[in-house]
TrEMBL record:
Residues 356-431 form the AMP-binding enzyme C-terminal domain. This is Medium-chain acyl-CoA ligase ACSF2, mitochondrial. GO terms for biological process: fatty acid metabolic process. It comes from Seriola lalandi dorsalis. Residues 59-301 form the AMP-dependent synthetase/ligase domain.
């Protein structure tokens, strides 16, 4: 079966018989031998992957279930059917094109679970713009690093959430915002940033979501329609950041193909939207399974979707070990799980690399040496513990170290425990035995 016919058949089947599409399109063939640049892991499977873009997935669902509820934000009184949601998505997508963003540009979304998060997720995908998921706990240095790392041209955020003052932090990074017309930012610290789009109260020098929705004219909507035939399901569409082994966050690029198929098998997700887990396995399930998304204010962290009857009920807990495995891709396309990333700390589902915290703590004037380990915690799984050797003649306290971190690194990276040490357990070659250090700290803390 050629690719065009296969694509047409999948698209047609999804809109007519979604519950049997996988069985109808059964493909069973041996894996091909990929080139060295191939990143696919492909083996024999009962269920074929779905060759659709994010926009196609939503459009197909709208054709079948236009009046079914798609998105509900209880705390904001927002109830959208699939047809209503699609109208909003198309308005925002056309508006982004009208404002000068184009296919391949990067747009960051920075904030909690709000309607605009999922709205811009689908709108950016439909416009071919790559959405960058920004952790709402990021502080100034962290968000500046990520914006520059992937050259974000736009950022969408509320003015504030709890103690996080998003617009104030952006002004600290980019004071030029107040001096230029909205949408024409030019900054020395973040040279690629052109606009900030606010989701709640209007701010000087910043656009509002309503401005984006009203910006698109008929020619921009036509441009958006024409663009759909040019997008490929292999195009990059999302960048997810996680802590890096060398200290700085690393960005993982996801394609339409990737997130559409990951979403197809997920129906209930209790996590935040900025996570790959939340936006991909959660947000995308609406379009893939013709269901309603319900956002609850419980802890401000709960994200749930409706359940798809023909798949049955499936609950997936957040704290699971897949984000802590290492793997390699073999020459025939098979993926082999080889072991756990020993140094990574998993605190309540957040992946934390000690090197990032260590590099920051080395900037404290009293710190001579520091090693960060994860110690067990009954509720969160692990907590961050900093083992610090001070410079000669200096004294410090847990409170001083934590205060030094506050506002500089995300709250979940701030050491819960600070232990001052004179030495570390070493191997015969002089390397620090982190596994022994971890055990020693747990014993010292009575954990």
């Amino acid at each position: 079966m050629d690719v065009v016919k296969f694509n047409d058949q999948v698209s047609q089947t999804l809109t007519s018989q979604p519950s049997v599409c996988a069985r109808s399109l059964h493909v069973d063939s041996p894996p091909h031998k990929p080139s060295l640049t191939t990143s696919y892991v492909h083996g024999t499977s009962t269920f074929p992957l779905i060759p659709l873009t994010v926009g196609q997935s939503l459009d197909n669902t709208v054709k079948r279930w236009p009046d079914r509820e798609a998105v509900v934000f209880l705390q904001d009184g927002i109830w959208k059917t699939f047809a209503q949601f699609q109208q909003d998505v198309d308005k925002v997508a056309a508006g982004l094109l009208a404002l000068g963003l184009k296919r391949g540009d990067r747009l960051g979304v920075w904030g909690p679970n709000i309607y605009e998060w999922i709205l811009f997720q689908f709108a950016s995908a439909k416009a071919g713009i790559i959405l960058v998921s920004l952790n709402p706990a990021y502080q100034v240095k962290e968000v500046e690093f990520t914006l520059n790392k992937v050259q974000c041209k736009a950022v969408v955020c509320p003015t504030h959430f709890k103690t996080q003052k998003f617009c104030e932090m952006l002004r600290e990074i980019c004071p030029e915002i107040d001096l230029t017309p909205a949408g024409t930012v030019k900054s020395s610290r973040v040279p690629d940033l052109r606009m900030v789009i606010v989701t709640d109260s209007r701010q000087p020098g910043m656009l509002h979501v309503e401005d984006v929705m009203q910006a698109g004219e008929s020619r921009h909507h036509k441009e958006l329609m024409d663009l759909q035939s040019k997008l490929s399901f292999d195009d990059p569409i999302n960048i997810q950041f996680t802590s890096g082994t060398t200290g700085s966050p690393k960005g993982a690029t996801l394609s339409h193909h990737n997130i559409v198929n990951n979403a197809y098998f997920m129906v209930c997700v209790p996590v935040s939207m900025y996570h790959c887990f939340g936006s991909v396995l959660g947000g995308m399930s609406m379009a893939m399974h013709f269901i309603k998304l319900v956002f609850s204010t419980l802890n401000k962290t709960l994200f749930c979707s409706g359940l798809m009857l023909h798949l049955g009920i499936a609950i997936f807990l957040y704290n699971f070990p897949l984000h802590s495995d290492t793997a390699s891709l073999k020459s025939l396309g098979y993926c082999r799980i080889e072991g756990r990333i020993k140094d990574m700390i998993i605190r309540g589902g957040e992946n934390i690399y000690p090197a990032e915290i260590e590099q920051f703590l080395y900037t404290h004037p009293k710190v001579q040496e520091v090693e960060v380990v994860g110690v067990k915690d009954e509720r969160l799984g692990e907590q961050v513990c900093a083992c610090i050797r001070l410079k000669d003649g200096h004294i410090s306290s847990t409170e001083e170290i934590r205060a030094f971190c506050k506002g500089q690194i995300s709250h979940f990276k701030i050491p819960h425990y600070v232990i001052f040490v004179d030495s570390y357990p070493l191997t015969v070659s002089g390397k620090i035995k982190k596994n022994i250090l971890k055990q020693d700290m747990e014993k010292k803390l009575g954990l």
